[in-house]
Recover the amino acids of this structure.
């Protein structure tokens, strides 16, 4: 399964999300692919596909497809929780048309 970039990292038990723009950013940013992730941390791509972050190849984390995915409403709730945790206002009014739109918006706010 091919990751549809951009993507977000959802940390187990936390509201914080990390935006990852592209495969090249994933590969070039050591904080992303050398990081020690928790068992429940997940990468979620622009289609909502879920990837585990437990597989390490040559000391680099390789996202592995789970075959599962989040739907648009689940992604929207994650994004609202993220924005609320970083102090963004009017979170309750936030809406998205697609999963990809929501993920791109996380990137635009976090930059």
């Amino acid at each position: 399964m091919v990751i549809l970039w951009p993507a977000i990292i959802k940390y187990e038990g936390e509201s914080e999300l990390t935006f990852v723009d592209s495969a090249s950013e994933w590969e070039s940013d050591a904080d992303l692919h050398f990081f020690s992730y928790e068992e429940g941390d997940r990468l979620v791509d622009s289609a909502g596909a879920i990837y585990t972050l437990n597989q390490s190849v040559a000391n680099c984390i390789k996202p592995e497809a789970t075959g599962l995915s989040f739907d648009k409403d689940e992604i929207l709730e994650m994004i609202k929780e993220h924005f609320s945790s970083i102090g963004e206002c009017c979170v309750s009014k936030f809406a998205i048309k697609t999963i990809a739109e929501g993920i791109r918006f996380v990137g635009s706010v976090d930059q």
